[in-house]
């Protein structure tokens, strides 16, 4: 395809290196034009021929760039996205969408004013285990879900000296966006949230633990994360009126790109750790449920089509704003130690 969409990437931390550049260089219809980074050597170690620019202004001045991917530190998301929209670019913002509801709403208004596409990188919609769970629910294997627990635990007992460890909101604004987005996709907007957040590691600069309960009229949803979990394999526990599904292990795509693999091949996104389905009928046997294949490439191909006017935005701004509203309410709940209505 000769009319590929030129893309500029802002930032080359974990997000830029593992979640964006490998897909920008392998998705048909996209062409990575330049990367903004203060560490050109780090970029060239992975992409020897990449054009590395020293600042965002230089990237936005490039007329060959139609899409800007914002993967800078959280507190810069809104400023970089707004500048890109003002320059006439389509924009993909890494999660979290912004650091406040006000910033998120302002970005949506800016995209509407500019007439450009705005989307947010909620890639975990295309995790193998989450796609499998969506299929089980759609097929009725669990009946009506009444209790849903989703966890992102880690064993990182020593805080790392990085901005991510010190981000405002801690783990809630790091891992929380993934868990909240998945819950909203499955069940819609909750009635209320009760959240507890804490700093459990010695000398950690920000909260490294959270547990949030989303209240629905007919179910309870628990979102949990701790960085002091030596046994951190449990990912999902879902109970319904017809049975239960329990899943251990994480989708393998992040680990693969961190290890330097490029997206592709018949086994890409294959999660070998099957979930266990236990029917509610007396005497029914627990069975293994093979995972559907996870594939973040589906986000990128959908984004390419949306920019061309050939399909919908894979993560519409109003859905990302809904995630921000729950995150904001969770912060207020933890600070005020009470349930916050949504």
From TrEMBL:
Chain intervals for the UniProt region annotation (Disordered): 258-284
UniProt keyword terms in alphabetical order: Oxidoreductase
Cited Gene3D superfamilies: Dihydrodipicolinate Reductase, domain 2, NAD(P)-binding Rossmann-like Domain
Source species, domain of life: Bacteria
Gfo/Idh/MocA-like oxidoreductase N-terminal domain boundaries: 5-122
Ranges that cross the membrane: none
Entry-linked InterPro entries: Gfo/Idh/MocA-like_OxRdtase_C (IPR004104), Gfo/Idh/MocA-like_OxRdtase_N (IPR000683), Gfo/Idh/MocA_oxidoreduct (IPR051317), NAD(P)-bd_dom_sf (IPR036291)
Domain Gfo/Idh/MocA-like oxidoreductase C-terminal residue range list: 135-342
SUPFAM superfamilies: Glyceraldehyde-3-phosphate dehydrogenase-like, C-terminal domain, NAD(P)-binding Rossmann-fold domains
Family: Belongs to the Gfo/Idh/MocA family.
Protein name per UniProt: Oxidoreductase
Source organism of the structure: Sphingomonas citri
């Amino acid at each position: 395809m000769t009319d590929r969409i030129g893309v500029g990437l802002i930032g080359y931390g974990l997000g830029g290196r593992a979640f964006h550049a490998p897909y920008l260089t392998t998705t048909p219809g996209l062409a990575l034009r330049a990367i903004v980074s203060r560490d050109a050597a780090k970029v060239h170690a992975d992409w020897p021929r990449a054009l590395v620019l020293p600042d965002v202004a230089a990237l936005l001045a490039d007329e060959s760039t139609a899409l800007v991917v914002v993967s800078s530190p959280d507190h810069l998301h809104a400023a970089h996205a707004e500048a890109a929209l003002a320059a006439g670019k389509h924009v993909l913002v890494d999660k979290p969408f912004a650091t406040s509801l006000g910033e998120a709403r302002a970005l949506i208004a800016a995209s509407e004013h500019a007439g450009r596409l705005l989307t947010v990188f909620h890639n975990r919609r295309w995790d193998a285990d989450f796609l499998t769970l969506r299929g089980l629910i759609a097929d009725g294997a669990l009946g009506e879900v009444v209790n849903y627990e989703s966890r992102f635990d880690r064993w990182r007992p020593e805080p790392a000296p990085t901005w991510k460890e010190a981000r405002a909101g801690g783990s809630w604004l790091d891992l929380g966006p993934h868990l909240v987005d998945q819950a909203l996709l499955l069940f819609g907007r909750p009635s209320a949230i009760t959240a507890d957040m804490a700093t459990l590691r010695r000398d950690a600069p920000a909260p490294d633990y959270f547990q949030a309960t989303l209240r629905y009229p007919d179910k309870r949803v628990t979102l949990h994360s701790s960085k002091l979990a030596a046994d951190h394999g449990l990912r999902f526990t879902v109970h319904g009126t017809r049975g239960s599904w329990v899943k251990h292990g994480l989708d393998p795509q992040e680990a693969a790109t961190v290890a330097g693999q490029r997206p592709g091949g018949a086994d890409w996104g294959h999660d070998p750790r099957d979930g266990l389905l236990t029917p509610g009928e007396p005497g029914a046997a627990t069975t293994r449920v093979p995972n559907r294949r996870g594939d973040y490439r589906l986000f990128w191909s959908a984004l390419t089509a949306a920019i061309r006017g050939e399909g919908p935005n894979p993560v519409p701004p109003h859905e990302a704003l809904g995630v921000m509203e729950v995150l904001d309410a969770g912060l207020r709940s933890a600070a005020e130690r009470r349930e916050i209505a949504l």
